[in-house]
Amino acid sequence: MAKVNWEREPGEIVEEFVAAMLLLDHPHGNQITPSRGDRGVDICVRHPDGFDVYQVKRYAGKLTAKQANDIERSWRTFVDKTLRVLPVRSWTLVMPWEPTHERLEWLAELTAGHGIRVEWMGGRILDGMAARRPSLVEYFFGDGGERLQRLMTAALHAGTEVPAQKAGDDLLAAVIGRHQALTAALNELDPFYRYEVEVRTGKVSDQPWDADTQSDPMIVLVQYQQLDAVTYLVMRLIALSAESTRLRPIVMSSELTATPGTPQAQALADFREFGAPLQAMPARITDVTGPPGITALPGEGRISIWPRPVQNMPDLEVRALAPDGSIPQTLDMVEVENGRATAGPGVWIAAQDQGGAFRLELRLNGSDRDTLDITPMHLAGRAPAEVLPAMRLLASLEDGNALVLAVRGGGKPIGPVWQDLKSPLTSQAKVHVQALESLQTIQAHTYERIEVPHLPAGPSFAQWWGRTLDIARILNGEQLTGTWTRLPVPRNLLPADDEFAVTMTLPLLIDINGRKIRLDMDQYVIRKSARVQDSSAAGTAPRGDTITLIPGSDPAMTVTAVARADLQ
Fold it and tell me: Are strands 299-305 and 413-418 parallel, antiparallel or unpaired?
């Protein structure tokens, strides 16, 4: 293993190497790329109770006065620019020089009085970290070519043919052993990425393009290759830290084409101007540089580009703004994605509400104008309480409210205030609010889960919705009134009078996807006046047969809800 000679290596490489070790130990940390100063922060790692901040310096020998002043300046910048705005729990000075007792006391005096943990990570700790990552040492300081040749030899040896004489359990054990050796060799190819290789049955052209991107949020590249008529290979390249693509970038030169006026052409334009994702775009790849194994990519194919997970971005909310400037409702947004144009100021932001009722897509700083798209998501199967807040916000846009995306908790807006958003979507949201509120009322009267049913638009939905609204109304104490036309009843229930009132207590049921749910209330139905449709037949019908009643002098009917005496 190549050993790091801290004093002889260039300072810039030392800082980059130390940062890489820290980021690989803390995969969700971010390296701060300074524009006008790094605010006293090189690496920032988020935890549930605050941030750990690391300040990396290249100094490998005893500190000079100038170097000590530089550290003091970094600390003051951190206090002024970062400590005031972030919940920091620790600040660590990282450098190859092992401090003396005097310098530890100096650092303690410099950083005292701020209520955070301060540490010095020196050469001994860095040597130990480097010893655990020989591939990283060789990548930065060693003979990477010789090492790659050794690893490829090991990989090829692991892939040699399994002896034919093995059978049964022995054959399976041999195959597993070779696969483990191949996996170990592959994962030594590059210190910033992990490889997953899988052979599947089928054709690449029949597979969903985004399926393999969902298994791990750190996947940065998925390559498919048809091996023969019945099998294909999938190689997933998984970043070992949030900064892997910066420390070891993957650079691809390609030609993307799309027919003008097609959705693909619009998607390509959005990618160029805003950094929006691309899905299965026809392309000719001309060159690829990056980790081993992807350099055989050039040729015809399709490219999908999706945004990386957003790191250290503030939590977002969407606000409804009333015409008088008040904020009647806010809604937390999650699953935030962000893209930037490769050249230019364009930005693409996407997020969905916490209940999963709709998705926002913003395209900002474009050459023409900013745009906002609101896309509804499937509500079927969701609990009413989950999606009601989002539907209420969308419905409020029908009343002239505006919309703005902003930092959660009263923070600054992101993008413009969006006015005049009335649409078929917002008017439909008003209808959905009524139905969802009715389902929420019904949920209060059963232990079983009430959810939005799978119903197509049309008569079946209208009939179900009308029934649901009626149930909710009587559960809320209303009395439904109407008329009736006919009612089959058993012959033995008839009174002797020619005209009579009919009262009935019936189970109160709600149908959710064909599942009949009985509520803890019954419906009490009163028909004020009824008579037998065929009195001669009623007189001769056997006891227990069914006869038909029709309205008498008053066809009115009322329905109310009453408590069930036999609550189950």
Answer: unpaired
Based on C-alpha coordinates, what's the Rg of the chain? 35
End-to-end CA separation in angstroms for the chain: 73
pLDDT along the chain (568 residues), means of 10: 72 82 82 52 82 89 91 91 87 91 93 92 89 82 56 50 57 67 68 83 77 72 84 85 80 84 88 87 83 69 72 83 93 90 87 94 88 92 93 94 93 92 92 92 94 77 86 95 90 75 92 90 94 71 74 94 69
Return the H-helix or E-strand segment holding 74.
Answer: helix 65-81
Task: Write out the H or E segment, with its range, that includes residue 110.
Answer: helix 101-111
Integer Cα distance of 405 and 411 in angstroms = 10
Written as one letter, the residue type at 9 is E
CB 434 within 8 Å of CB 381: no
Report whether 75 contacts 114 (CB < 8 A).
Answer: no
What is d(CA 389, CA 328) in angstroms, rounded to the nearest whole number? 12
Q: How far apart are CA 315 and CA 549, in angstroms?
A: 64
Is the torsion defined by CA of 220, 225, 231, 235 positive or negative?
A: negative
Q: Phi and psi (nearest 5°) for 384?
A: -55, -40
Residue 395 CB neighbour total at 10 angstroms: 21
Give the Cα separation of 159 and 199 in Å (integer): 13
CB atoms within 10 A of CB 126: 23
Token look-up 């049955």 returns 201
Select from 131, 52, 135 the least CA-distant residue to 94: 52
